[in-house]
């Protein structure tokens, strides 16, 4: 990259960068800063320090002049900040978005710079020498540690004050000081070859380590879990300490690796190492970077750039990237996975070359490889406890695609009940899902078959799942991900329905009122303005929450985003999914507030909208941790419950036991399939009502000869009453009170539209009561002459009611 001048930039302009996709040497980007003078000559300025920020995949690098460049690997952009003085150290603030702590080499202050604008937000002063080390505490958000060779200061960032200062004396200057990964201890190595440990809470010394065989101590490093510490110096010795016992674990002679001394060391986090990092990066005295496998005690790879030796290096907190600052001032940025692939390929090449052509030898090699695979799977099973998996998830943000199904199985503790699953399969395709291909367009016959099988098993397991119309949309993304293992697919979905879908079916087949109320309360707590915007446009939680839940986020997220979200949902408590719904709305606040109609807002939740997945997940965790307990879903949810191991699965009991709900759902489903006019539906309902009432009366009435006449008389009276009511509503343009109108409408609709819920009277006077009720309605209509609202016709009232019922049914389904 080139810079045409050294003047201060008024506006921050961003430029595109292009990363190498498959670099041969692992370098995805190389940086050099060249400026052109007034005479046209080019001069290269050396880079001196840099720092990674993993949350949004950013890197900041500063040169000797004071220019700071920021590189965004997510958006593939870079930009230059306003000119600062030369800096001696820098670090991203993990608790403040877009904040960079920069140590000024001239006045020894710590400036907090906004990486978007380059403005200095505030500065900390108090050092008497250039700051070489900057660290943030992991257990105290507002604690900052800065250190120069002669002093170390602990800062309280809440009020910008220092509350502890460590001064040194000549001959015992600070070589390095940092927090342990857990933040419980403060560890420093000094020029007099001692290591001092303080407890962070009290700043009292708890341990002093003086390695006798290690001289000229330079550097210390911790594994991510904080249980092991490596110490190295200019002597060819590497010592590994256990932080649990404060004793040396190993002492390695580096001369056998042709390393005469060590300038810098750092652990490289890897997938599935559970924080017990096994790869140690060692910058030797001859400026070569070596990668040492602490399990095999072998150098698996070395980096020795042809153009220049390496002066220093830095690894990102998650181990995804690392960079090397060369002695000529250039910066090589590496992607760790590419370097590890090179390391593995270099190990395998000699083996492949030595393979003879005989089939016997080839067979032996194959057996050896399969044995190695078994060992790897055994190690993976040992590492598959939920605590380790969560640490991996928080470190990398997602689980690897290759092992996702195994990890989900471990998180959900699926029992692998083959006999119980086979019993469900043997019952065949459930009638409710026999023709599901008519409802959904699924091009893959294999996917359709797996979807039918899963839904049928769920329906056989619990009858409720045969009538919940949203269920196919909910389980479909799981089918796409886990369809290669049908048993795992069923048990994962069943476990999700038991735990993450608690209280969803409390009012089945109607919407889950309790769940929607929780979501609305959480949104009101954290973003009242957005909730007011929804209310102002008549948008309820059935639109901005229920639609997302019923599709398990698959309608609003891309495939990769969906997988990452469900990695986090399955790794956390059941309430996490509700927090994710609220977080999705809050993250899209700006886009939602620009929509000014109910239709636009409703369409928004039926499409995939661009989203910053890291900000989305970060906000979800904030809501999970900062929501008051009185409205937190965990108050109402039970803890995680796995499927029981055995010959049958436990019953699903999270729904109403009354069969009327299921009958009602089936009745509504049948009505939706029938193409009837309003008049036919009304007449049919009236006939069913009268026939049922007459049937009850016939049983109790001893005069069988009058039953037919009574039935006909009741029918005629009822029809006459309804027709009279319709005629009065359509012809007589009278206004009457809204309260009476609503009362009359409710009574009429109840008698016509809900024959199933009418309270039948078994005594002989039930028909007379019905007539009295109709007469009472007619008399009220005649007596009111001074009301304020204009009445509508009966057909319009009933049509609107049926439409509202059908809409509510669709929302439930």
From TrEMBL:
Its main location: cytoplasm. GO terms for cellular component: centriolar satellite; ciliary basal body. It holds the Pfam family RabGAP-TBC. Residues 687-711 are annotated as: Disordered. Keywords: Cell projection, Cilium biogenesis/degradation, Coiled coil, Cytoplasm, Cytoskeleton, Repeat, WD repeat. It is found in: Cytoplasm, Cytoskeleton, Cilium basal body; Cytoplasm, Cytoskeleton, Microtubule organizing center, Centrosome, Centriolar satellite. GO terms for biological process: cilium assembly. GO terms for molecular function: molecular adaptor activity. Residues 398-573 form the Rab-GAP TBC domain. Molecular adapter which is involved in cilium biogenesis. Part of a functional complex including OFD1 a centriolar protein involved in cilium assembly. Could regulate the cAMP-dependent phosphorylation of OFD1, and its subsequent ubiquitination by PJA2 which ultimately leads to its proteasomal degradation. This is TBC1 domain family member 31. It comes from Bicyclus anynana (Squinting bush brown butterfly).
């Amino acid at each position: 990259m080139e810079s045409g001048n050294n003047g201060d930039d008024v506006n921050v302009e961003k430029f595109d960068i292009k990363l190498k996709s498959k670099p041969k040497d692992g370098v995805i980007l190389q940086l050099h800063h060249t400026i052109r003078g007034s005479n046209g000559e080019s001069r290269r300025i050396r880079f001196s320090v840099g720092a990674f920020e993993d949350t949004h995949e950013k890197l900041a690098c500063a040169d000797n002049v004071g220019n700071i460049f920021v590189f965004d690997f997510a958006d593939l952009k870079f930009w230059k900040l306003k000119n600062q003085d030369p800096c001696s150290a820098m670090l991203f603030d993990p608790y403040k978005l877009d904040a960079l702590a920069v140590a000024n080499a001239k006045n020894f202050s710590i400036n907090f710079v906004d990486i978007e604008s380059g403005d200095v937000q505030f500065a900390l002063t108090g050092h008497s020498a250039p700051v070489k080390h900057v660290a943030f505490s992991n257990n105290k958000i507002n604690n900052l540690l800065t250190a120069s060779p002669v002093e170390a200061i602990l800062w309280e960032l809440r009020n910008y004050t220092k509350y502890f200062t460590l001064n040194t004396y000549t001959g015992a200057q600070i070589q390095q000081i940092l927090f342990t990964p857990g933040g419980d201890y403060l560890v420093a190595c000094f020029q007099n070859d001692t290591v001092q440990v303080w407890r962070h809470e009290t700043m009292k010394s708890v341990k002093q380590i003086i390695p006798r065989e290690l001289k000229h101590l330079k550097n210390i490093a911790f594994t991510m879990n904080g249980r092991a510490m490596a110490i190295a110096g200019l002597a060819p010795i590497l010592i590994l300490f256990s932080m649990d016992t404060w004793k040396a674990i190993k002492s390695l002679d580096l001369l056998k690796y042709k390393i005469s001394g060590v300038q810098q060391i750092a652990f490289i986090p890897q997938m599935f190492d559970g924080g017990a990092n096994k790869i140690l990066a060692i910058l030797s005295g001859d400026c070569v970077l070596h990668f040492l496998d602490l399990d095999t005690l072998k150098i698996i790879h070395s980096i020795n750039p042809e153009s220049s030796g390496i002066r220093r290096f830095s690894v990102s907190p998650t181990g995804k990237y690392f960079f090397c600052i060369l002695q000529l001032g250039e910066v090589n940025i590496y992607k760790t996975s590419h370097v590890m692939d090179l390391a593995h390929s270099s190990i395998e090449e000699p083996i492949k070359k030595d393979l003879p052509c005989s089939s016997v030898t080839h067979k032996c090699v194959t057996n050896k490889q399969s044995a190695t695979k078994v060992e790897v799977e055994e190690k993976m099973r040992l590492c598959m406890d939920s605590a380790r998996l969560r640490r991996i998830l928080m470190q990398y943000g997602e689980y690897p695609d290759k092992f996702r199904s195994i990890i989900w199985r471990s998180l959900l503790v699926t029992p692998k009940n083959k006999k119980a699953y086979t019993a469900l399969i043997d019952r065949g395709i459930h009638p409710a899902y026999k023709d599901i291909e008519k409802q959904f367009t699924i091009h893959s016959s294999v996917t359709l078959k797996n979807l039918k099988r899963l839904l049928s098993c769920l329906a056989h397991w619990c009858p409720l799942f045969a009538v919940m119309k949203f269920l196919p949309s909910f389980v479909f993304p799981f089918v796409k991900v886990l369809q290669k293992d049908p048993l795992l697919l069923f048990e994962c979905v069943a476990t999700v329905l038991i735990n993450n879908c608690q209280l969803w079916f409390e009012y089945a087949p109607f919407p889950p009122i309790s769940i929607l109320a929780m979501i609305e309360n959480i949104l009101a707590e954290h973003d009242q303005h957005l909730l007011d915007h929804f209310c102002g446009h008549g948008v309820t939680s059935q639109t901005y929450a229920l639609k997302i839940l019923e599709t398990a986020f698959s309608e609003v997220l891309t495939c990769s985003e969906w997988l990452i979200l469900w990695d986090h949902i399955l790794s956390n408590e059941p309430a996490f999914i509700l927090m994710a719904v609220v977080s999705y709305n809050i993250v899209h606040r700006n886009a939602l507030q620009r929509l000014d109609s109910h239709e636009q807002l409703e369409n928004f939740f039926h499409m995939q909208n661009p989203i910053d997945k890291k900000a989305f997940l970060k906000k979800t965790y904030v809501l999970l941790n900062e929501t008051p307990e009185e409205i937190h879903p965990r108050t109402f949810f039970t803890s995680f419950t796995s499927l029981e191991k055995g010959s049958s699965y436990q019953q699903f009991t999270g729904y109403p036991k009354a069969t009327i709900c299921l009958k009602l759902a089936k009745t509504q489903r049948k009505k939706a399939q029938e193409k009837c006019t309003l008049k036919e539906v009304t007449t049919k309902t009236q006939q069913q009502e009268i026939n049922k009432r007459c049937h009850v009366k016939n049983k109790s009435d001893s005069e069988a000869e009058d039953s037919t006449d009574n039935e006909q008389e009741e029918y005629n009276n009822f029809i006459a009453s309804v027709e009279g009511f319709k005629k009065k509503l359509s012809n007589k343009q009278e206004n009457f009170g809204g309260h009476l109108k609503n009362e009359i409408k409710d009574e009429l609709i109840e008698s016509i539209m809900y024959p199933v819920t009418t309270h039948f009277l078994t005594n002989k006077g039930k028909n007379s009561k019905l007539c009295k009720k109709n007469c009472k309605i007619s008399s009220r209509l005649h007596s009111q002459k001074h009301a304020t609202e204009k009445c509508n016709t009966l057909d319009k009232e009933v049509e609107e009611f049926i439409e509202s019922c059908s809409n509510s049914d669709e929302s439930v389904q």
